[in-house]
Specification:
four-stranded mixed beta sheet; 10 strands
């Protein structure tokens, strides 16, 4: 670490500059190529810093300070909401061996039944044959080929997902994803899953399984 003491620049303005693309670009250029990213204080001192007059520095710093405070506020609300969801997931599903949850919507009193998952859904594995897609089958635009890393916060992150051609997709005998399916990880990050509501066609890698609800509400099953 290095301690930087502002002398001829507004400190909070400089802090924002050092968190901007201006800093990032110069840091990459000046990385000294050690086993891990490395930068000397001398090279840091040579960074070019844009310098409006002090009044404008103060205004820019105050603007980004307000944004940082807003982000912190929303992050706190997000964390609190995640804790609420965790609590309600514990209370709105029956505990092991019990037939009723602790918290229910008004008007519901019947015991809950138990069913094996296989009685309620259909499973579709990724193609595991010689036709399995390899690096040469990937294209910039095409049919999503979903891996575990593309399952983020319960959804499929399409912008990071690999794509294959429609011709390659049609060759595969594995999962043909539909909207409303649930993609579930069988290996690696076991249990990681996502509900498909942002695309209509795709397939999965061999580490995943595509679950198609048949006798259960899909979004309810996703929460279970």
């Amino acid at each position: 670490l290095v301690d930087i003491r502002p002398k001829k620049v507004v400190g909070k303005y400089l802090y924002q500059v050092l968190n901007s693309d201006i800093e990032y670009t110069q840091r990459i250029v000046n990385d000294e190529g050690a086993a891990q990213p490395n930068l000397s204080a001398k090279n840091l001192s040579l960074f070019n810093i844009p310098m409006p007059d002090e009044v404008e520095q103060e205004k820019i710093a105050a603007y980004f300070d307000d944004l940082d405070n807003l982000i912190t506020l929303h992050q706190r609300k997000c964390d609190e909401t995640k804790e609420l969801k965790k609590f309600m997931l514990q209370k709105m599903f029956p505990k092991n061996g019990e037939k009723k949850p602790e918290i229910r919507f008004e008007g519901f009193t019947d015991d809950w039944e138990q069913r094996k998952l296989g009685e309620l859904v259909e499973f579709y594995n990724g193609d595991r044959s010689s036709r399995y897609p390899n690096d040469s089958d990937m294209v910039s635009e095409g049919v999503p080929f979903i891996n575990a890393g593309d399952l983020v916060s319960g959804r499929v992150k399409l912008d990071t997902a690999n794509k294959i051609t429609e011709e390659k997709f049609n060759e595969l005998s594995g999962a043909k994803i539909q909207r409303g399916d649930i993609i579930y990880c069988l290996r690696g990050t076991l249990g990681k899953n996502a509900f498909v509501d942002n695309f209509d066609v795709g397939t999965v890698a061999s580490s995943l399984v595509d679950i198609r609800p048949k006798k259960v509400v899909g979004k309810y099953l996703y929460q279970v």
